[in-house]
Specification:
The chain has 258 residues and is mainly α. Helices cover 87% and strands 0% of the residues. It has 9 helices and no strands. Helix 4 runs antiparallel to helix 6, helix 4 crosses helix 7 and helix 6 crosses helix 8. The longest helix is centred in the middle third of the chain and has 40 residues. The radius of gyration is 21 Å and the shape is elongated.
Length: 258
């Protein structure tokens, strides 16, 4: 058991280190616009637009469950319009970014790791170097930029859908009026709530794509290695999302509260 825990911790730390190195190399490769420029929009479509249905599905059930949970927890001790407050704060600041990020870690992270890993084991990455293409600029930069830009877009859609789902559940299942829910949602609303959630989503996008690229480029051993790289990318991305979530809470949210 100790050996298993130690091995898992070592692999997670190695994944984080590889993601950090890939991120630094990607920043250096940004000046090679002719290489990554034509590929960026296609990656945004694949990573972002293709992920919107997942975000909408998660947010729909998330909003409904939050409204029901808030009503159950409050009972008759507090005004019912505070259901809107809980749904608004929780969806925008925490659940929409984190749950959507975890779902996209499975979809985007595994896809990137498998795609680049297949290119590595079939020597396509070596062929890029032979053709004088920088693999970082060609493979990593477009994907990381797509994650940075499109993760907040998907999370923004999830925020809106989650609020609408909570509003619908409050009226249809909790016998609340629309005015009551909107009153609660607006009571403690601050534009900081949206900014906080979207900044977290952007950091999750960079983390997921960087880990996926790092795991893909380090793939060895044929098809078995590709599967292992995809699994490692998902696990490491999920851990990194939770770490970043705590980081933003301590650095930004705690500082704002004090």
């Amino acid at each position: 058991m100790i050996e298993l825990v130690g091995r898992s911790a070592r692999e997670a730390l190695e994944g984080l280190g590889s993601a950090g190195r890939i991120t630094i190399d990607a920043v250096r490769a940004l000046r090679d616009v002719r290489t990554w420029g034509p590929l960026a929009t296609d990656q945004m479509r694949k990573l972002g637009v293709g992920s919107i249905p997942i975000g909408v599905l998660i947010a729909s059930f998330m909003g409904i469950v939050l409204a029901l949970l808030a009503s159950y927890s409050f009972t008759n001790s507090v005004p019912r319009y505070l259901v809107g407050t809980l749904v608004q704060k929780t969806v925008m600041m925490e659940l929409a970014p984190v749950l959507t990020g975890l779902a996209l870690a499975g979809r985007v992270g595994a896809s990137i790791a498998a795609e680049i890993g297949t290119m590595r084991v079939t020597e396509q990455v070596d062929a890029l170097e032979t053709l004088a293409y920088d693999p970082i600029a060609y493979l990593v930069v477009p994907r990381m930029l797509a994650g940075l830009i499109m993760f907040p877009v998907v999370v923004g859609v999830a925020m809106m859908v989650g609020l609408i789902a909570g509003w619908w559940a409050s009226m249809g299942l909790l016998d609340m009026s629309s005015a009551q829910f909107i009153k609660g949602a607006r009571l403690f609303f601050d534009s900081f709530d949206i900014n906080y959630g979207l900044v977290k989503a952007a950091s999750f996008g960079v983390a997921v794509t960087a880990v996926g690229c790092a795991c893909g480029l380090e793939t060895r051993g044929g098809s078995e290695g590709v599967g292992a790289a995809a699994t490692k990318a998902v696990v490491t991305s999920a851990v990194l999302i939770l770490v970043l979530d705590a980081f933003w809470a301590v650095v930004w949210l705690l500082g704002r509260a004090t």
